[in-house]
Amino acid sequence: MSKTPIIILNYKTYVESTGKNAVQLSKYVQEASEESGINMAIAPQAVDLYPIINEVDIPVYSQHMDAITPGGHTGSTLPEAIKETGVTGTLINHSEQRLTIADIDAVVEKTKDLELTSVLCTNNVKTSAAAASFNPDYIAIEPPELIGTGIPVSQANPEIVENTVNEIHKINKEINVLCGAGISTGEDMKAALELGSQGVLLASGIIKADDQKQALLDLVSLI
Q: Can you give the residue range of the structural domain that contains 179?
């Protein structure tokens, strides 16, 4: 599992983080990590995992994996196939790729079997506390109404971050909590850490920036 504090950059399906752009962005992230001394990881689209893993040494996560076994599941993402790409771990239950409780349980258990790091996304304090019972490596709290808005959860609703950290650690103190949704500046990053999180999960604030590498350096400039 990566050291904290950590930044995980979710590439989603933006043009700026797809194909050749994804490879270049990954190099920028590695350079920013090396220059700042802050741990940074990335979560590209599944089709970009192989070329990116061959180009960088930072942790690479899958954006998703399905609760399936090898066989007839056309169009699904097989955990064993994700493992074979060489990734470090995977995001689970992102608000844009929701899973049922049963599937969350199955996927988290599969990451343990495959020795992959699990980043389980949640949307409020209650679901975060429930998610802690699955014992993932990370829980990322992201209120969906703030995703992509530029309004950071660490400022718009700081209580949800503090309360999430408290409730999760009542159940399992070993789980690292990440703060997501609207994070884009150094002030946002600093606030997230001050509220008790061990890092951030973010996307558009960096990916859509005119200078992606500088945006990453600015993000960690106050910690």
A: 6-219
